[in-house]
Inverse folding.
C-alpha cells in the first residue's frame, strides 16, 4: 500500500459546485472535492498524469439543473477532461497534445442544452505551449492562446489569438462576453464571438498602464475591468471597448475627454485606488457588481464599495492571499492563501467559517539558522507529523487522513506576512506516545544584543493534540543555540544539546493537583548537565530502552548514563561534525550521520564499541523503526549524477539492516533537500490489509516542499499505488451526511480512560530532609541568599560521600 | 368588573419592577404617603360671604376651566386663575332666577350653562353674555338637577320632585322624552361618558335607574337599589361602573355585570351629599401616570378620597362645616367644595400650567374612557435610554458579563502605535526594572532598540544611563544590558563627553562594574578552592 498526500491546494484557483456544497481544488495530478459544510475531502478525480491547471464547473442551464455536477479540467499533460464529479466518473477526454497552462470556457450561457437538430459547439480558450515549432520560431513567444472546440474534441486549427513569453492567467468575464490576459504593462481583452463558425473573427483591444499588471477582473454586468499592479494600485477602466466592440461597426470618432485613460486606449475613464503596499494578487467583483474584493501580500482582504471607494477589511489572515472565489451561494466564498490553506468565508460579515487546511509550506529562514535540522517530528503511534510553520506555529498533520489536525502557537508573537523574521522555531521533538512536545526557539539578536533562546515543554490536552505550555526555560545553555532536543522513550526525560559545549537532561516532575477534577501538571527541571572537553554538542539520541544516552560532541560520540550522568564511553572519530544520531531499534547499533565536505553515514556497534561500517553519503535524515533492527536513511545524491541516471530525482531512500552494509531496498525520490523520514506504527484498524497481512510498519517520506508518501518498506510492490485507504475515507464521508458520522470521525476515538492511573495517592508535602534536591531548581531570581545555599550545598556533598563510603 | 381587572393587570406589570421591601421597621406615625401629599398640595382658598348653602358647583370643560357655583337664587362664575392670585370675588354673577338654584351644568364645549331652580324652570345661558337663551318649562315641581350629556350638545336631562325625568330638545324648548319610573323625588343624574344615549338617575325611592333614550317604551334598562335615598350618582370614567351616594355610604356598581355591587364605602359619619371623580398622580418606576379617585363630601364635614381600584380610602380631609357639593376641574388643578353656610373652599394646585389637560369632559370627553394610562416611554424621551439601568438582577436571570477591558500601560500603548522611542522613555521614567527590560526585548525583536538609543536626547540618555548603571550588573538582565551598555557608550560617546551630567552617570556605571568585577574575582577564588574538593568527591564515588 502507498499513500500520497501533502499536496498543494493552492496551485490554481478552486471552483465551487453549482449548489455551493462542494469545492473543487486542484491538487497536483488530481482534483479533490471538498465538502464546504465540513471542510473534509469527499472524493477526488484522478486520471490526469501531470499538474491540473484549471477546473471549470459547468453552470446550470436551468434552475433544476443545479444538482448536476459536471466539470472540465485541463492539465499540463495536454488533455482536457470532462467529469461527473458527484460519482466521480470520467466522461470524456480531449487530447490536444500540448501542455495547457490555463483554460476558460466563456460561452456556457449561450448554449442551449440541445438545440433543435443542430447541436452548437462549445468552445474553450486555452493557454498552451507550442512544443513543435520551437526550432523555427523565436523561443520567446512560445506560449499561445488557442481556441479549442470541446464538442469536436480538437483545437481550432491555425487560430492563435495571442502569444506571450510566459504563461499568463486567462480571465473570463462572468457574463461570458469577454476574456483577457495581462501581459507586462498591457492588458489584452478579447470579445468572445457570437455562436457561429469557429473561425469567426475575434476582436481584441489593448489597455496600457505604466506598471506591471498582476491580476485583472471583469465586472459582472457593466463594461468595467479592474487590474492590480505590482505597486499595489488598483486601476478601474470603465466602458472599455466602446469603439472596437460596437455592434454596428460605425466609427464614432468623437474626441471626448477620457480622464485617466492612456495612449488613446479604448475606454471611457480610468480611476486608481491605492491601499495595498505590495502587489495585488487577488481581484474579484462581487456577483452583483457593487463591490470589488482585493488582496495581496499583506494577507488582508479589502472590500471596496465600487461607487464610493469606501473600504472594509478582513485583516489577520496571516498569509499572502492567492485567489478569491465567489460561490453561487451568496453567503459563501473562499480565499486561498499561500500557506496552503483555503478559508471558507461567510460572506457579508466576512467571518471564517471553515478552513481546508493543507500541509503548511516550508518556511525560509535566514542563512545563519540553516543546518539546525528541518523541524519535522513524526508521531509514530498516531500517524501525525509535527512541522514548524512560518507563523510561529507547530502544525500537526495527519498523514493517513491527509489533512491538518491542529496548530500549536509556539511563540507569543503574531505573524504578519512580509515582516522581518526575528523569532525562529528551531527544533521540535515529540515523545514516543505523542503526548509531550518540546520546542526550542531563537530570538534573533539585534546587532549582537538581546538574543534569546527558549526551550519550551508542552503537554497534550485530553484530545485532538491541543498542547498547553507546561514549562519555559530561558537561555537553557547560556546564549548558545540548541542543536537537538530528544525525548527519552519513557517520556519523562528530555535531553537538549547545545553548540555551547554542554547538554542538559531535563526531568519531568509530575504534580497532580487535586481540584474538582484530576489535573496533571508537568513541570520540568534540569536534572543533570554534562559536557565533553567543551566541544559543541551537535546531536543526541536515547537508546530504545532508555539506558544509554548518546551525544555527539562534534566528531566524537559520547555515551552517558542518563540517570546518573556518568560518562560511559567515547566512540571515536568521524571526519566532519555529526549532525544526526539514531539508535537502531532494539539492536545494539548506533547510526551517525555527518555532513560537510566529507559526509559520512556510519554505524557503530555498541557491544564492541567500534565502527561496524560506513558510507560516504550526504545524509539528510535517518529514521529507525522502534522494534526492528532496520533503519532508513535519506541520502542526497551528488549533483554530478543527477542528470543521467535519476531523471531529476535528487535523493534516494536507503533501507538498511543494521548489521548488513548492503541496503535491502532503494527508492529514488524528488526534492530530497530538506526532506524527512519517519517510521509509523500501524494501527490495524486504520489500514486495509494487503494480501491478507497488514504491514508491520510504514515508512513516511516527506519531501522538501512537504509533499509526502507513506508506504510499506518491506512490501515488494511498494510502488504500486493503492488508494484503498482513501476510498474508505470517502465512503465514510458520503455516508456522513446522514448517519454514522460524528464525534469519532472528526476527533478520532476517545482515549481509553485508565481509571487506575489517576489514583496515585495525594501525598501531602512536607519539608524534605534533603533540601539540596530542590533548592537549586527554579529560576535564578528565586534562589535563596548565598549563605543559605552554601550550607545546603556542602551538606549535599557530605551526604553523597557517606553514600559512596557505604 | 372590567375596571378592576384592568387595574390588576397594570399592577402585575408593575410587579416586574418591584422594589425590595425594606427591612426597616415601620415608623409608628405613618409618613405622608405620596398620595396624601398630593391631595394636601391643593392650596385652599376660602370664598366666603355667599349667602346660603352651595347647592351645586360645575366646572367648564374648556380651559381655563372656570367654575360656576349656585347659591340661593344666583349663580356665580369664578376663574381659577384669579383664585390662585388670591382674588376671591366672582368674575361674573347671574341672578335672573326667581327661586333657589338647584343645579348647574356646562355644555361640553363650555359655551352654554344650564341652570335649574326650584320653581321648576330650566334656563340655558350664554356663559359670556350671561343672557338666558332658552327657558325650558315643563316641570311642575322643583327641578333638582339638570345635566348636559357628555357627548351631546343638543339635548338636556332634568328631573325633580315630580319624579319625572325629562329629556329636552334645547333648541326647540320641548321635551323629547318623559321618563317615568321613579316613585319619589329624583335628586341626581349623570350621563354616560361613553354613550350619548345612556344616563343614570338616582332618586329618594332608594333606586338608581339606568336609562337608554333608544328604548322605545321609556322604561329603565337597569335598576339598582342603594338602600338609602340616593343623593348623588356618577359614572366612573370607564362608563362601566357607577358610584352612588346615599345615606352615609358610597357604593360602586358594575353596570356591565348587570348591576352588581362592587364595593360599599362606609366611612362617612353623616349623609354623603356629593361625589365626583378626581384624579391623582401616581409615580411608577419613574414615569408618572394619572389614576382616578372618587371624592366624596358629606354633612360630617369630611372629604374623603377613595381609590376604587384598590378599594381603600387614600386620603381624608376635614372642613369646618357640613359640605354640600364637590367638584374637580378637568385639568386636575382645582378642587372646589361648597359648604352649607355659604363658604366655598377652592383648592388650587401649583404646578406647570400645561399639565395634562385630560380629565373629565375634555372637548369630546373621550379621554374619560381611557384607562389610567401609563405613558409608554418612547425613544424621543431622554429617559428611554436610561430605562432599566438601575435594575438589580433577579435570581435566575442570565447575566452576560462584559468583557474585562484590558488596561494597557502607557509604554504598551506607545508600542502599539510604533512610537518606539517614546515607549522606551516612558518606561524608563516608570522605575520598574522588569518592564524596562521587557520593552527593550520587544524593541530588539522589532530591531529598533539601537535606533531608539541613537535618537535619545541628552536628558533621556541620562535616564537610560542611570538605569544601566543600576541594573547592568544584575545577573538576570546582564546578558542584554551589558551588551546594550557597550553599544550605548560606543554610539553616543560624543554626547556623553559634552555633558557633565552624563559623565557622572558614566562614573557611576564604571563604579558598579568595578564592584562586579571584584565580586567575580572573589567568586573565582572560591571556585578554585571548591573544585579540587569536588574532584576528590567524584573520584571517590
Amino acid at each position: 500500500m502507498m499513500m500520497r498526500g501533502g499536496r498543494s491546494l493552492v496551485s490554481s484557483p478552486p471552483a465551487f459546485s453549482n449548489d455551493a456544497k462542494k469545492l473543487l481544488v486542484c491538487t497536483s495530478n488530481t482534483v479533490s472535492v471538498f465538502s464546504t459544510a465540513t471542510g473534509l475531502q469527499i472524493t477526488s478525480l484522478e486520471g490526469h498524469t501531470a499538474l491540473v491547471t484549471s477546473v471549470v464547473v459547468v453552470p446550470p442551464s436551468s434552475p433544476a439543473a443545479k444538482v448536476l455536477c459536471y466539470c472540465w479540467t485541463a492539465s499540463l499533460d495536454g488533455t482536457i477532461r470532462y467529469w461527473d464529479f458527484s460519482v466521480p466518473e470520467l466522461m470524456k477526454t480531449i487530447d490536444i497534445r500540448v501542455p495547457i497552462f490555463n483554460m476558460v470556457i466563456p460561452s456556457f450561457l449561450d448554449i442551449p442544452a440541445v438545440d433543435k437538430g443542430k447541436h452548437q459547439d462549445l468552445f474553450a480558450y486555452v493557454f498552451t505551449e507550442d512544443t513543435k515549432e520551437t526550432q523555427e520560431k523565436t523561443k520567446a513567444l512560445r506560449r499561445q492562446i488557442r481556441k479549442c472546440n470541446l464538442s469536436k474534441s480538437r483545437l481550432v486549427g491555425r487560430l492563435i489569438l495571442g502569444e506571450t513569453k510566459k504563461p499568463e492567467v486567462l480571465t473570463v468575464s462572468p457574463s461570458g462576453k469577454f476574456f483577457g490576459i495581462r501581459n507586462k504593462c498591457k492588458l489584452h481583452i478579447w470579445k468572445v464571438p457570437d455562436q457561429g463558425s469557429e473561425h469567426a473573427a475575434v476582436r481584441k483591444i489593448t489597455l496600457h498602464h505604466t506598471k506591471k499588471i498582476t491580476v485583472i477582473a471583469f465586472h459582472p454586468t457593466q463594461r468595467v475591468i479592474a487590474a492590480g499592479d505590482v505597486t499595489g494600485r488598483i486601476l478601474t477602466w470603465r466602458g472599455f471597448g466602446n469603439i472596437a466592440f460596437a455592434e454596428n461597426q460605425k466609427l464614432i470618432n468623437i474626441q471626448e475627454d477620457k480622464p485617466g485613460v492612456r495612449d488613446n486606449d479604448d475606454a471611457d475613464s480610468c480611476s486608481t485606488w491605492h491601499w495595498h503596499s505590495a502587489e495585488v494578487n487577488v481581484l474579484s467583483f462581487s456577483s452583483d457588481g457593487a463591490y470589488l474584493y482585493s488582496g495581496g501580500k499583506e494577507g488582508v482582504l479589502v472590500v471596496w464599495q465600487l461607487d464610493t471607494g469606501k473600504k472594509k477589511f478582513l485583516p489577520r489572515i496571516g498569509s499572502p492571499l492567492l485567489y478569491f472565489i465567489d460561490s453561487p451561494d451568496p453567503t459563501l466564498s473562499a480565499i486561498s492563501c499561500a500557506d496552503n490553506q483555503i478559508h471558507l468565508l461567510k460572506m457579508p460579515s466576512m467571518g471564517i467559517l471553515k478552513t481546508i487546511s493543507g500541509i503548511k509550506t516550508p518556511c525560509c529562514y535566514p542563512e545563519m539558522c540553516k543546518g539546525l535540522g528541518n523541524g519535522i517530528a513524526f508521531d509514530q503511534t498516531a500517524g501525525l507529523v509535527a512541522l514548524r510553520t512560518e507563523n510561529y506555529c507547530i502544525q500537526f498533520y495527519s498523514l493517513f487522513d491527509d489533512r491538518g489536525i491542529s496548530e500549536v502557537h509556539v511563540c507569543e508573537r503574531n505573524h504578519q506576512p512580509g515582516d522581518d523574521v526575528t523569532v525562529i522555531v528551531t527544533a521540535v521533538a515529540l515523545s514516543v506516545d505523542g503526548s509531550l512536545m518540546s520546542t526550542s526557539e531563537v530570538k534573533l539578536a539585534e546587532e549582537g544584543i538581546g538574543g534569546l533562546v527558549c526551550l519550551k515543554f508542552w503537554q497534550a490536552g485530553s484530545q485532538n493534540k491541543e498542547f498547553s505550555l507546561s514549562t519555559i526555560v530561558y537561555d537553557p545553555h547560556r546564549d548558545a543555540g540548541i542543536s537537538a532536543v530528544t525525548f527519552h522513550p519513557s517520556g519523562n526525560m528530555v535531553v537538549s544539546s547545545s553548540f555551547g559545549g554542554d547538554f542538559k537532561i531535563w526531568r519531568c516532575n509530575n504534580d497532580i493537583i487535586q481540584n474538582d477534577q484530576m489535573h496533571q501538571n508537568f513541570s520540568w527541571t534540569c536534572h543533570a548537565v554534562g559536557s565533553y572537553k567543551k566541544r559543541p554538542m551537535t546531536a543526541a539520541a536515547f537508546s530504545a530502552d532508555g539506558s544509554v544516552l548518546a551525544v555527539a560532541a562534534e566528531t566524537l560520540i559520547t555515551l552517558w548514563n542518563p540517570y546518573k550522568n556518568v560518562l560511559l564511553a567515547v566512540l571515536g572519530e568521524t571526519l566532519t561534525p555529526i549532525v544526526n544520531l539514531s539508535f537502531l531499534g532494539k539492536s545494539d547499533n548506533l547510526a551517525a550521520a555527518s555532513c560537510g565536505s566529507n559526509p559520512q553515514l556510519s554505524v557503530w556497534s555498541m557491544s564492541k564499541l567500534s565502527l561496524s561500517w560506513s558510507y560516504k553519503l550526504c545524509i539528510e535524515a535517518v529514521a529507525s523503526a522502534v522494534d526492528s533492527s532496520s533503519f532508513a536513511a535519506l541520502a542526497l545524491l551528488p549533483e554530478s549524477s543527477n542528470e543521467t541516471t535519476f531523471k531529476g530525482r535528487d535523493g534516494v531512500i536507503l533501507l538498511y539492516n543494521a548489521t548488513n552494509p548492503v541496503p535491502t531496498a532503494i527508492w529514488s525520490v524528488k526534492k530530497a533537500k530538506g526532506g524527512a523520514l519517519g517510521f509509523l506504527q500501524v494501527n490495524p484498524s486504520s489500514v486495509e490489509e494487503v494480501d491478507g497481512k497488514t504491514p508491520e510498519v510504514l515508512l513516511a517520506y516527506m519531501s522538501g516542499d512537504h509533499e509526502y508518501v507513506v508506504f510499506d518498506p518491506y512490501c515488494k510492490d511498494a510502488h504500486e499505488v493503492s488508494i484503498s485507504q482513501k476510498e474508505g475515507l470517502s465512503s465514510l464521508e458520503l455516508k456522513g451526511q446522514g448517519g454514522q458520522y460524528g464525534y469519532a470521525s472528526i476527533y478520532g476515538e476517545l482515549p481509553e480512560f485508565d481509571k487506575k492511573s489517576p489514583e496515585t495517592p495525594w501525598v501531602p508535602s512536607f519539608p524534605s530532609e534533603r533540601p539540596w534536591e530542590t533548592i537549586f531548581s527554579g529560576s535564578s531570581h528565586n534562589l535563596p541568599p548565598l549563605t543559605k545555599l552554601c550550607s545546603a550545598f556542602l551538606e549535599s556533598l557530605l551526604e553523597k560521600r557517606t553514600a559512596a563510603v557505604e | 368588573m372590567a375596571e378592576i381587572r384592568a387595574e390588576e393587570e397594570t399592577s402585575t406589570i408593575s410587579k416586574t419592577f418591584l422594589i425590595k421591601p425594606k427591612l426597616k421597621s415601620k415608623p409608628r406615625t405613618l409618613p405622608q404617603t405620596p398620595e396624601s401629599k398630593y391631595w394636601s398640595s391643593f392650596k385652599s382658598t376660602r370664598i366666603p360671604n355667599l349667602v346660603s348653602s352651595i347647592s351645586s358647583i360645575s366646572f367648564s370643560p374648556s380651559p381655563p376651566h372656570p367654575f360656576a357655583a349656585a347659591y340661593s337664587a344666583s349663580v356665580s362664575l369664578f376663574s381659577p386663575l384669579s383664585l390662585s392670585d388670591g382674588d376671591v370675588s366672582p368674575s361674573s354673577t347671574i341672578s335672573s332666577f326667581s327661586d333657589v338654584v338647584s343645579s348647574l351644568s356646562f355644555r361640553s364645549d363650555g359655551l352654554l350653562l344650564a341652570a335649574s331652580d326650584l320653581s321648576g324652570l330650566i334656563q340655558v345661558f350664554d356663559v359670556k353674555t350671561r343672557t338666558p337663551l332658552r327657558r325650558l318649562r315643563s316641570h311642575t315641581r322643583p327641578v333638582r338637577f339638570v345635566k348636559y350629556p357628555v357627548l351631546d350638545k343638543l339635548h338636556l336631562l332634568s328631573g325633580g320632585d315630580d319624579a319625572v325625568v325629562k329629556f329636552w330638545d334645547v333648541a326647540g324648548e320641548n321635551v323629547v322624552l318623559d321618563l317615568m319610573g321613579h316613585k319619589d323625588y329624583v335628586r341626581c343624574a349623570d350621563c354616560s361618558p361613553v354613550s350619548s344615549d345612556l344616563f343614570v338617575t338616582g332618586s329618594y325611592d332608594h333606586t338608581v335607574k339606568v336609562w337608554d333614550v333608544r328604548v322605545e317604551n321609556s322604561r329603565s334598562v337597569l335598576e339598582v337599589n342603594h338602600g338609602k335615598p340616593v343623593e348623588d350618582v356618577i359614572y366612573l370614567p370607564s362608563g362601566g361602573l357607577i358610584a352612588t351616594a346615599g345615606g352615609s355610604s358610597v357604593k360602586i356598581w358594575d353596570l356591565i355585570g348587570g348591576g352588581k355591587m362592587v364595593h360599599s364605602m362606609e366611612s362617612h359619619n353623616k349623609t354623603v351629599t356629593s361625589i365626583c371623580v378626581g384624579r391623582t398622580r401616581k409615580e411608577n418606576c419613574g414615569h408618572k401616570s394619572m389614576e382616578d379617585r372618587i371624592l366624596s363630601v358629606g354633612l360630617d364635614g369630611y372629604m374623603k378620597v377613595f381609590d376604587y381600584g384598590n378599594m381603600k380610602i387614600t386620603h381624608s380631609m376635614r372642613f369646618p362645616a357640613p359640605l354640600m357639593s364637590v367638584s374637580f376641574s378637568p385639568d386636575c388643578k382645582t378642587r372646589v367644595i361648597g359648604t352649607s353656610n355659604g363658604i366655598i373652599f377652592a383648592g388650587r394646585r401649583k404646578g406647570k400650567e400645561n399639565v395634562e389637560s385630560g380629565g373629565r369632559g375634555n372637548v369630546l370627553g373621550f379621554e374619560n374612557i381611557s384607562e389610567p394610562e401609563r405613558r409608554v416611554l418612547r425613544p424621543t424621551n431622554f429617559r428611554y435610554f436610561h430605562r432599566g439601568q438601575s435594575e438589580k438582577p433577579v435570581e435566575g436571570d442570565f447575566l452576560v458579563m462584559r468583557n474585562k477591558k484590558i488596561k494597557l500601560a502607557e509604554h504598551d500603548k506607545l508600542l502599539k502605535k510604533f512610537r518606539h522611542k517614546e515607549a522606551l522613555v516612558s518606561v524608563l521614567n516608570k522605575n520598574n526594572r522588569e518592564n524596562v527590560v521587557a520593552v527593550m526585548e520587544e524593541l530588539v525583536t522589532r530591531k529598533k532598540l539601537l535606533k531608539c538609543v541613537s535618537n535619545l536626547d541628552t536628558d533621556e540618555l541620562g535616564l537610560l544611563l542611570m538605569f544601566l548603571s543600576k541594573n547592568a550588573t544584575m545577573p538576570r538582565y546582564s546578558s542584554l544590558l551589558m551588551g546594550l551598555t557597550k553599544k550605548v557608550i560606543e554610539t553616543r560617546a560624543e554626547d556623553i563627553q559634552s555633558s557633565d551630567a552624563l559623565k557622572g552617570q558614566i562614573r557611576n556605571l564604571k563604579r558598579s562594574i568595578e564592584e562586579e568585577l571584584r565580586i567575580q574575582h572573589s567568586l573565582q577564588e572560591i571556585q578554585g578552592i571548591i573544585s579540587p574538593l569536588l574532584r576528590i568527591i567524584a573520584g571517590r564515588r
